[in-house]
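Open question from group meeting: does this chain pack into something compact, or does most of it stay loose? Before anyone orders reagents, we agreed to write out a predicted structure and look at it together. Recording both the input and the output here so the notebook holds the full record.
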Amino acid sequence: MVLFNATTKELTAKIVYYGPGLCGKTTNLQFIYDSLPHDGRGKMLSLATQTDRTLFFDFLPIEIGTIRGMKTRIQLYTVPGQVFYDATRKLVLRGADGVVFVADSQAHALDSNKESFQNLIENLREQGVELEHIPHVIQWNKRDTPTALPVDLLEREVNLFKAPTFESSAVQGEGVRDTLTGIARLVLKQLTEKYGGEPSEQDLSLPSAPPNAATKAPAHPLEVEELSTQEMLEETEEIEDLSDAETQPPHHSVVEVPVVLDRSLFTGDGPVEIKLKLYLK
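Structure tokens returned:
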């Protein structure tokens, strides 16, 4: 659900990168963050283990122009790929305006892709949303690997709703920008149809990368906060408690999750106020 801020004349749409573990979701956001101009990107937060598996989500707001006089901002998230963190997936997915499903093209990952795509459908359905009715695209990642399956086979097995697809190698940065542009166009098109007016081509274009932007995702582009195994278990239990609560968090409160997971960022009781200060100012 898009968020409107009448004071700042901004509307904010939420796009979630979904997919199985190690498919390249975080790599996508790392490359996007590194290639966008500084004035068109926000601060990126990454919480990961030493094996680079995203545990919670990455958060990256991107400004991409205006719709009917309102500045448009897109917030990018990834979900954890591991099945164990399904409750976290549901929380991050709540209120999504668009979804990028990142599929691992390698032959051994076909079943994982199909299971994750079905999990996406089911988690949205629990929230009263059908995937076929919201903007979504599929990225066939790791096309540069020797065991990459033919695209037509992946289309038959995974792309159940004939969504637009993009071939990519996220570690090289190939296809990453095209994927983001594709989902941004779909989301903005839906917003303009819903709220009136037509976006211009400029509105549907992403900011250009600076001339000296890297063409390959950097090996260590971000500061990563690591959690111990015990801390991960404790924080996952908190996420499970949140997902089972009688009242689910509102759309924008998904942004609060990383702060809950890092107790060092706040003291005392009242994390909601502090989380809002950090991410929604």
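Observations to bring back to the group:
The chain has two domains: 3-195, 229-279.
Residues 46 and 58 are 5 Å apart (CA to CA).
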